[in-house]
Amino acid sequence: MDHHTHPVHHGADSGLPEILPPALALPACAAGYLYLVHRARRRNPAQGWSTWRTAGFTTGLLLLAVALLPPLAPLAHGDFRGHMAQHMLIGMYAPLALVLGAPVTLLLRTLPVTSARRLTTVLHSRPARLLSHPAPALLLSTGTLPVLYFTPLYDTATAHPAGHWLLHAHFLLSGCLFAHVIAGPDPAPARPGVPARLVWLGCAVALHAGVSQLMYGGFWVDVHAPVPEVRGGAEIMYYGGDLAELLLAAALVATWRPERGPRPRPQPETVPAVR
């Protein structure tokens, strides 16, 4: 057991330079999405755009605002429990909501035909097909947790403002990728069927639970924070991760349309011969 009781040594203070980028970027993203929704509805009024998808995307942006703005952002710099709450919001809850907003589908509906075809070509390219498989998505999201918390990487990254922002970007992008692969409504050509995706989600649940339990017990953890903070962060990871993965499973099952086999062709009735 190797608990570290040193104080957290974040070098990035949650001042105006850190608060300003998300305070400007998140409203800009919301405005851009709503503009595309307006264009999609004008281009095809009959098809329109789902209000639920719009609500999902805006909810994701609100969750990011909660994570990146006060009061949580300053707490995340001085308390490991605040960091873990921020991690859950940026890496699990916000990505699911953003992905359910189907931003790629919205973009395809509003782009000119030539640009939409180019984007479709990119989506069908070999790198995109590789990333849309659950294995790389799981490795980049949940699989990097032991590297972050069981090595000096966490303390090294959070000691510098740039490292802190890189962590945020990694949590968000890898979380969006995994949510998209498992339950995203946007097109993913190489995505396996629903039963296989449920298996991969189960692997993520097991890995997530294992990392949080090892962290709570103090095994292999390499985070320079007081023991109560580390244990509190582990509890947030364990219970918060379980809830996020249940929501992801619910989103997957909600979009499941089991394939029906071909119906047997009706056999012509045979008329008995009259003797």
Automatic annotation (TrEMBL):
Keyword presence, Cell membrane? yes
| Name of the protein described by the UniProt record | Cytochrome c oxidase assembly protein
Question: Which keywords appear in this protein's UniProt record, sorted alphabetically?
Answer: Cell membrane, Membrane, Transmembrane, Transmembrane helix
- Superkingdom is Bacteria
Q: Which Pfam families does the record associate with it?
A: Caa3_CtaG
Q: Which residues cross the membrane?
A: 19-37, 49-69, 89-109, 130-150, 162-182, 194-216, 236-256
Primary site of residence: membrane
Matching entries from InterPro entries are given as:
Caa3_assmbl_CtaG-rel
Coiled-coil spans in chain: none
- Tell me the leader sequence span: none
Topology in the lipid bilayer is annotated as: Multi-pass membrane protein
| Compartment(s) | Cell membrane
